Amino acid sequence: MPELLDLWISSLPRLLGATIRTTVPLSLISFAIALVIAVITALLRLYGPAPLKAVAWLYVWVFRGTPLVVQLFIVFFGLPNVGIVFSSFTAAVVTLALNTGAYASEAVRASLLSIPRGQFEAAQTLNLSRATTLRRVVAPQAFRIVLPPLTNDFIDLVKGTSLVFAITITDVFQVGRQIAAANYEPLIMYTLVALIYLVIVSLLSILQGVLERKVSVHVRSS
């Protein structure tokens, strides 16, 4: 037992270092881009011209219907065959952002559809443009509705970063694999990696609860 505890203590700095250097920034950058993709895709599917609606639908269909690890392999190993070369980190960001953006776009689209049609009609009577209506009337209401599913998408993205070891990125999971291979203690190391992910996800869940309470204050008070 003391030996196992020593292994945990000695391995923890390397694992936390990989988490801070790779897993956290990879998650944040990918999700920020995914949010932009999700909003644009949702708006195109709802209000865009027919050709762009078809393109948006095809994008969502492809990325929701194929495994993330396959997408990583296509972007990192496959695209160089047609002259498109990414570094491993960039390939991971591109893939995670596109994958999460596809899922998040459905949440954004559903939140926009949930706003009563009367809101749009009332805005029209005030001579508000569609862009102004979306920005000042619909978006604040949709944000409260879409917050929980978006947070869940972010949590799924964080867990999905554990697959980037497949394209040579040294994230927290890859470091755990390296230590396990050197010390022949896979159960101990993978359990420690799982606990790190569990802490991150738990913190995100707490943050989700705080945000939901803040954006819903006016609903409860009314």
Automatic annotation (TrEMBL):
<keyword id="KW-1133">Transmembrane helix</keyword>
<dbReference type="GO" id="GO:0006865">
    <property type="term" value="P:amino acid transport"/>
</dbReference>
<keyword id="KW-0813">Transport</keyword>
<feature type="transmembrane region" description="Helical">
    <location>
        <begin position="187"/>
        <end position="211"/>
    </location>
</feature>
<dbReference type="GO" id="GO:0022857">
    <property type="term" value="F:transmembrane transporter activity"/>
</dbReference>
<dbReference type="Pfam" id="PF00528">
    <property type="entry name" value="BPD_transp_1"/>
</dbReference>
<comment type="similarity">
    <text>Belongs to the binding-protein-dependent transport system permease family.</text>
</comment>
<keyword id="KW-0812">Transmembrane</keyword>
<feature type="transmembrane region" description="Helical">
    <location>
        <begin position="20"/>
        <end position="44"/>
    </location>
</feature>
<keyword id="KW-0472">Membrane</keyword>
<dbReference type="InterPro" id="IPR010065">
    <property type="entry name" value="AA_ABC_transptr_permease_3TM"/>
</dbReference>
<feature type="domain" description="ABC transmembrane type-1">
    <location>
        <begin position="20"/>
        <end position="208"/>
    </location>
</feature>
<dbReference type="InterPro" id="IPR035906">
    <property type="entry name" value="MetI-like_sf"/>
</dbReference>
<dbReference type="InterPro" id="IPR000515">
    <property type="entry name" value="MetI-like"/>
</dbReference>
<dbReference type="GO" id="GO:0043190">
    <property type="term" value="C:ATP-binding cassette (ABC) transporter complex"/>
</dbReference>
<keyword id="KW-0029">Amino-acid transport</keyword>
<feature type="transmembrane region" description="Helical">
    <location>
        <begin position="84"/>
        <end position="104"/>
    </location>
</feature>
<feature type="transmembrane region" description="Helical">
    <location>
        <begin position="56"/>
        <end position="78"/>
    </location>
</feature>
<protein>
    <submittedName>
        <fullName>Cysteine ABC transporter permease</fullName>
    </submittedName>
</protein>
<keyword id="KW-1003">Cell membrane</keyword>
<dbReference type="InterPro" id="IPR043429">
    <property type="entry name" value="ArtM/GltK/GlnP/TcyL/YhdX-like"/>
</dbReference>
